[in-house]
Specification:
By secondary structure, the protein is an all-beta fold. It has strands at residues 31-34, 37-44, 55-58, 65-67, 79-80, 91-103, 115-118, 124-126, 139-141, 150-156. Strands 1, 2, 3, 4, 5, 6, 7, 8, 9 and 10 form a ten-stranded mixed beta sheet that branches. Strand 7 and strand 8 form a beta hairpin. The radius of gyration is 16 Å and the shape is globular.
C-alpha cells in the first residue's frame, strides 16, 4: 500500500517519556497524528511534573519548552498530557487535538457540552466571557466533570 503522507517515520510511541534525546527521537515541536489525535513533542522546563489530565503552556525558556507552574487562564494552552507523566527535565508528547481526560480545578465543575479554558497550574475551568478578561477556549466537556475531578473533553489547540 502506498503512503502519501508528509510525516517522516516516527520511532517512538506517544506514551514515551525520555530525559535525553536519542538518535531516533524527534526534536521538540515535532507534530504527529495518531488515529484521530494530534500530538506535539515538548520539553518540560518547569519546576513541576506534568501528570496526565493536566495542560501545559510555553515556559518562555526556548521553543516548545513547557510548564504547568503558575499558569493562569490568560495563557495559551500548548497541549494536554494524556499518557505518561512528564517529570521535570524530560521530553514527551502532549495531545493538541482529540479526546482526552482533563482535570477541573477545585472551584469549577462542567456539564456536558460546556466550553473549557485553561485555569491555574494546568487544570481546567469553564470559559469566562467577562468584559476585558475573556479566556481562550481550548475544548469542550463531553461529560459532566466534578470540581477537582477528571472527565472526558475534546481539546483543540492546533
Amino acid at each position: 500500500m502506498t503512503h502519501y503522507g508528509n510525516n517522516p517515520i516516527n520511532f517512538q510511541a506517544v506514551s514515551n517519556v525520555t530525559a535525553t534525546l536519542g538518535a531516533n527521537d524527534p526534536e521538540p515541536g515535532y507534530r504527529i497524528t495518531v488515529g484521530d489525535e494530534d500530538y506535539v513533542f515538548v520539553y518540560n522546563a518547569g519546576n513541576s511534573q506534568i501528570p496526565p489530565t493536566y495542560g501545559a503552556v510555553m515556559s518562555a525558556v526556548s521553543g516548545y519548552s513547557v510548564t504547568i507552574s503558575s499558569t493562569t487562564s490568560v495563557d495559551f494552552l500548548v497541549g494536554v498530557c494524556k499518557h505518561a507523566t512528564l517529570t521535570t527535565g524530560t521530553y514527551g508528547w502532549l495531545v493538541t487535538k482529540g479526546f482526552t481526560q482533563v482535570e477541573m480545578e477545585a472551584d469549577n465543575s462542567a456539564a456536558a457540552g460546556q466550553i473549557l479554558a485553561l485555569a491555574a497550574d494546568g487544570e481546567f475551568a469553564l470559559k469566562s466571557n467577562s468584559t476585558g478578561y475573556p479566556t481562550p477556549a481550548v475544548g469542550k466537556a463531553m461529560e459532566a466533570i466534578a470540581s477537582a475531578g477528571s472527565g472526558t473533553a475534546y481539546i483543540s489547540v492546533n
